[in-house]
Every structure is written in structure tokens, then in C-alpha cells.
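Example 9 (inverse folding). The structure is encoded as follows.
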């Protein structure tokens, strides 16, 4: 990449990553600040089949879904997993101010519109919730169902509309953790919130998009984007999204892990506030940490396939 204000990770960093044989796909997003930005995505399975749109969080990328994608496509469905701008194989603006929740939502809306995705089931984890649920509210005609896995939608409202003691002892310090930092150990963060051990080669794959600290503006900024107070950027938009969700009647299934103190309290709020969540076969995944795709991929895949088959037929 020749622009000094946008970096592009060399392709050589992504050669022979364990468990990730998928061909890269790219599209160009129009952007008033940069002219255009290249976004990477995985796209597997029949193009005319119902699809699962898998959105990652911090500090991961589409590699997070490598165990889920082949299980979805083996059942005849399509799997699409983008890398947010600043993550994975997507372009990486070097200015941290480029990364706001609104910018991520706008980039993902253009992604959705360019690909013309319809008949989608959303699979959302971590920041996938705040970004993906905003997509749902903006483009409800595109989505048939939602699976929420270890995610949240901060609103600074008291229970039962929100959670008690927000942001709490985990999210609050995490939101402050990189505010003034100049580097970020991606592999260490992912490894530290998994219950089981990660193979060193898998940890290296999570580090692959970031040759050095100059590529990490996006992952450095994400924690401080979490809205902690009523006057924080994003709270008004999240509350409007909650208003939308209170009228959403299509299926919503939660699949939270039992060992994730960062998001566990939101499970109840999603189940109780969203009409489409009532009567659904929600699951709790034991012995899994925040990145349930690593620790609990079998249970998560099973719940997802059950949702797809109830929605579209076996």
C-alpha cells in the first residue's frame, strides 16, 4: 500500500495459516477521507443459499470463524465473514481517530449493500453486537434471524432494560486499557481470555495482520470506543437500536459461555427485551471463555445449525 495514511498487511503474512484454507475476497469501500478502502471477507458455500453473516470483535478477525465456516457450508448454507477496516486482511488507516463505531457501521452498511446480501442470519460476538445490531436496525429486510454469542449493546440504562453496575469491574478497566497505549499484544489478549490453551501457531495467526505497532490503530482504539456513560458517543444510537429490537419478532437465539464475565449479564437483557428471543432454545456453553468460537465451537455450531434448519428446513 503506497498511501502513508493507510497500511495494507503484506499477503505473505497470511500464507499457510492453520485451519484457514479460504480464498480471500475483496471489495472497495468508498470513503470521503481516504477515497476508498479495501475490505477483505471470506465467502464460502453456494451463492444462492441462505447465508450466515459472521461478525468478529476485538482484537480478532475472520480467522476466528475458521471452525464454524466449514460446518455451515457442509449443510448447504453460505458463510460470509468480513474483516472490519483496521483488522485482518482489510486496509488499516493509521490514525486512531478514523475508528469510531459510526464509521464501522457505515463501512459495514456499504459492504452489505455492495454484496446485495439478503436472507442473512447474523452471528454476532463481542463488537459484532454493537455493529451488527445497528446493521439489523438499518437494513431489517436483509436479515431473517440472529444469534448472539458473548456480546453486548451498551445503553447506560438500569435493569431490567440494561445491566447493573455498568460498566463493571471488567469492561471499565478494559475500556481504559489502551487509551494511551502505543502497542497492543493481540495474541496475548486472545490467549488470556480463552479457557483452554491455544496452539502457538493459532496465536501467531491472530497476530498475522499486524506486522508492527503501526498497523494496530484499529485494535488500539476499539476498547476506548466502548460507551461508558450516558453522554458517551454511541449511547443515543444504541438506545435507538434497542427501541428497534423491542419490536423485532424474527428468531433471536443467545449462546453465551459460562466463563465470560465481560458479557454474561447481557444474556438476560437480550432474552427479555427482544420479542423474537421468547421461547427460543437458548443455550449456555460450559467451559468456554470470551472467544467462544475457540473454546466452544462445537456447541456454538450446533446451536447455529439448529437455528438455520428451523428457519429454512433441514
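The amino acid assigned to each position is listed next.
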Amino acid at each position: 500500500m503506497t498511501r502513508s495514511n493507510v497500511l495494507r498487511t503484506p499477503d505473505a503474512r497470511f500464507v499457510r495459516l492453520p485451519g484457514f484454507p479460504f480464498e480471500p475476497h475483496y471489495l472497495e469501500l468508498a470513503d470521503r477521507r481516504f477515497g476508498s478502502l479495501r475490505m477483505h471477507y471470506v465467502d464460502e458455500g453456494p451463492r444462492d443459499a441462505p447465508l450466515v453473516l459472521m461478525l468478529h470483535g476485538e482484537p480478532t478477525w475472520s480467522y476466528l470463524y475458521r471452525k464454524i465456516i466449514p460446518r455451515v457450508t457442509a449443510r448447504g448454507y453460505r458463510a460470509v465473514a468480513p474483516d472490519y477496516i483496521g483488522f485482518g486482511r482489510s486496509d488499516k488507516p493509521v490514525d486512531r481517530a478514523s475508528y469510531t463505531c459510526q464509521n464501522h457501521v457505515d463501512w459495514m452498511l456499504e459492504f452489505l449493500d455492495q454484496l446485495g446480501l439478503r436472507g442473512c442470519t447474523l452471528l454476532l460476538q463481542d463488537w459484532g453486537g454493537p455493529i451488527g445490531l445497528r446493521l439489523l436496525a438499518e437494513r431489517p429486510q436483509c436479515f431473517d434471524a440472529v444469534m448472539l454469542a458473548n456480546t453486548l449493546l451498551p445503553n447506560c440504562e438500569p435493569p431490567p432494560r440494561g445491566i447493573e453496575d455498568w460498566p463493571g469491574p471488567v469492561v471499565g478497566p478494559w475500556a481504559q486499557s489502551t487509551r494511551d497505549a502505543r502497542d497492543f499484544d493481540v495474541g496475548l489478549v486472545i490467549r488470556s481470555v480463552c479457557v483452554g490453551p491455544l496452539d502457538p501457531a493459532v496465536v501467531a495467526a491472530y497476530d498475522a495482520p499486524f506486522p508492527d505497532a503501526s498497523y494496530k490503530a484499529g485494535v488500539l482504539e476499539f476498547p476506548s470506543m466502548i460507551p461508558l456513560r450516558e453522554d458517551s458517543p454511541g449511547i443515543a444510537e444504541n438506545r435507538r437500536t434497542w427501541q428497534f429490537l423491542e419490536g423485532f419478532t424474527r428468531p433471536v437465539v443467545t449462546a453465551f459461555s459460562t466463563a465470560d464475565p465481560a458479557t454474561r449479564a447481557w444474556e438476560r437483557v437480550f432474552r427479555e427485551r427482544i420479542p423474537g428471543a421468547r421461547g427460543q432454545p437458548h443455550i449456555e456453553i460450559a467451559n468456554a471463555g470470551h472467544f467462544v468460537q475457540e473454546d466452544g465451537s462445537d456447541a456454538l455450531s450446533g446451536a447455529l445449525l439448529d437455528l438455520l434448519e428451523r428457519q429454512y428446513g433441514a
